[in-house]
Design brief:
With about 300 residues, this protein is α+β, with helices and mostly antiparallel strands. It has two domains: about 1-140, 3-Layer(aba) Sandwich (Glutaredoxin), CATH 3.40.30; about 155-290, Glutathione S-transferase Yfyf (Class Pi), Chain A, domain 2. The protein is about 40% helix and about 10% strand. The protein is globular, with a radius of gyration of 19 Å.
Length: about 300
C-alpha cells in the first residue's frame, strides 16, 4: 500500500510527483502529420482528460493515439506492440531522460522528431493540446470564462479528481472523512453552478468540464463501490447528472469511454484495496448517460 497510495503522518493520501511536468512551448512541427503521439491508458482518468481534448479538437491528423495496457503483475504500462523500440512505457520514460526513481504514467505526449516525451503531466498536457492547431479552431479556454475556468480546475483537481483517491487510499478515518466531505461539497457546488449555466464555467464548454468528466463518469462504476465515495447517488444532484449526460453526447466522447476496462483494472489490479480481485456487477454505462437511472438495471460481471 505504501507504494500504491503513499500517505502523510495523518493518513492523508499524497500523490507522488511525476516526470516531464513542465508545460513546453508549442512544437514548431505541431501541424505535421503523425509528428506526435499521445499515449493513454483506457482506465486512467488523468489520461482520459487528454484523450477528450484530443477527440473534441479532432487532432488525429497530427497526433496519433497509442493505447497502453496495464500489466498488474509487473505494475507498469505495456505497449500492445513495440513502440519506438520499447515494450513498456517505463523504457520510453528512461530513454527520454526520466530519473530512475520516477514513475512512468499516462498520459504522455511523444515527439517523433525529437524522439522523446515532451510532457507527461495531464493538467499541463491538456493546455498544450488546446493550443494545438485543429481543423475548426475549437477553443476549450474561452477568454470570457478564463477566471471561472481556472477556479473550477483548481477546485476540482484537489477535491474531486484527486479527492476520490484521497478517499480510497486514506489510512485513517479522519483522513477519509476530510476527503469525502470535500469531494461532495465540491460536487454540490458544481451542481448549483450548473443550475445557472449549461457548462461549468459559463456558456461555452471549457477545460473545467473536461477535467470533471473522467471522474464523474467513473463514479458509480468504480469510485462509489471501491473508494467509498457513496454519500449520494449522482441523480440526487440533477444538474450535474444532466450535465454528464450532455457531455457524454458530445461528438467523439463516447469512443473514449471503456467501462469494462475501468472496472477490470480498478477492481482487478488494486490489490490492497480489493484483495480478492473479483469484479462485481454494476450499472451499465447506458443507464448513467441517458435519462434517470432505471431501478434493477445492472451489468453482468466483467470477465477479467
Amino acid at each position: 500500500m505504501g507504494g500504491l497510495g503513499p500517505a502523510d503522518a495523518d493518513g492523508n493520501y499524497r500523490r507522488p510527483a511525476g516526470a516531464f511536468i513542465a508545460l513546453p512551448p508549442l512544437p514548431s512541427d505541431a501541424a505535421a502529420a503523425d509528428g506526435h503521439v499521445l499515449i493513454v491508458g483506457r482506465s486512467c482518468p488523468w489520461a482520459h482528460r487528454a484523450w477528450l481534448v484530443w477527440s473534441l479538437r479532432q487532432l488525429a491528423s497530427s497526433i496519433t493515439l497509442v493505447v497502453v495496457d496495464p500489466d498488474p503483475e509487473e505494475g507498469r504500462w505495456r505497449f500492445a506492440e513495440p513502440f519506438e523500440g520499447c515494450t513498456t512505457l517505463i523504457e520510453l520514460y528512461r530513454r527520454s531522460g526520466a530519473d530512475p526513481g520516477q514513475r512512468a504514467t499516462v498520459p504522455a505526449l511523444y515527439s517523433r522528431r525529437e524522439r522523446r516525451i515532451l510532457v507527461g503531466e495531464s493538467a499541463r498536457l491538456i493546455e498544450l493540446l488546446n493550443r494545438w492547431p485543429c481543423p475548426d479552431g475549437t477553443n476549450l479556454e474561452p477568454p470570457a470564462q478564463e477566471a471561472t475556468t481556472t477556479h473550477w480546475r483548481e477546485r476540482l483537481q484537489s477535491a474531486v479528481n484527486d479527492g476520490v483517491y484521497r478517499c480510497g487510499f486514506a489510512r485513517s478515518q479522519g483522513a477519509y472523512n476530510r476527503a469525502e466531505a470535500a469531494l461532495f461539497a465540491a460536487l454540490s457546488d458544481a451542481d448549483r453552478a450548473l443550475e445557472q449555466t449549461p457548462w461549468l464555467s459559463g456558456a461555452e464548454l471549457s477545460l473545467a468540464d473536461v477535467v470533471l468528466f473522467p471522474t464523474l463518469i467513473r463514479l458509480e462504476l468504480v469510485y462509489a463501490p471501491l473508494f467509498g465515495c457513496s454519500r449520494l447517488p449522482l441523480w440526487q444532484l440533477p444538474a450535474l447528472w444532466d450535465w454528464r449526460q450532455r457531455f457524454h453526447g458530445l461528438p467523439g466522447v463516447a469512443s473514449t469511454c471503456w467501462p469494462q476496462a475501468w472496472r477490470r483494472d480498478y477492481f482487478g489490479a488494486l490489490f490492497p484495496l480489493h484483495p480478492s480481485g473479483i469484479i462485481p456487477a454494476g450499472p451499465p454505462l447506458a443507464t448513467l448517460v441517458s435519462g434517470r437511472p432505471v431501478p434493477g438495471a445492472w451489468a453482468d460481471p466483467v470477465d477479467p
